[in-house]
Amino acid sequence: MEKLTLSTEVTFNATAAQVWKGLTNYEMVKTYFFGTELRSDFKKDSPITFSGEWDGNKYEDRGIILEVIPEEYLKYTYWSSMSGTEDKPENYANVSYALNEADSVTILTITQDNIKDENAKEHSENNWQMLMGELKKLLELPS
Known about the structure:
- This is SRPBCC domain-containing protein.
- Residues 13-140 form the Activator of Hsp90 ATPase homologue 1/2-like C-terminal domain.
- The structure is a single chain.
- By secondary structure, this protein is of the alpha+beta class.
- The protein has one domain: 2-Layer Sandwich (Alpha-D-Glucose-1,6-Bisphosphate, Chain A, domain 4).
- Helices cover 27% and strands 42% of the residues.
- The chain has 3 helices and 7 strands, in the order E-H-H-E-E-E-E-E-E-H.
- The protein has helices at 16-24, 26-32, 118-139, and strands at residues 4-12, 37-39, 47-54, 57-69, 73-78, 93-102, 105-115.
- The protein has a 7-stranded antiparallel sheet with strand order 1-7-6-5-4-3-2.
């Protein structure tokens, strides 16, 4: 069965540098991502982990950084301990963030592959939009 890929966009009234910081800064991620602990040095071939607790269940999601161009592009593999799948290569997705800035407005395009069906695709897209909506609120606070 062929797996699906989603691509979704979020527009930020913020620079690419600000959005990048929001995606990679541990403290900022913890603020908008419901207490999630992000860990990575954001170097190619390095691990990336997301851990915390959701609905009383501990989780540790993980992957490997595949490509990184600061303030422009990040791609990593991703497996969730809450996915109900085994931690093996065929169960990992690729997730990428592409940032395109013009006049202090940044369009973030998120792509995720290896999605099992349309329901899972819709669920993932809704989660990305909600999560990036929280980052948007954080970055666009009046100064």
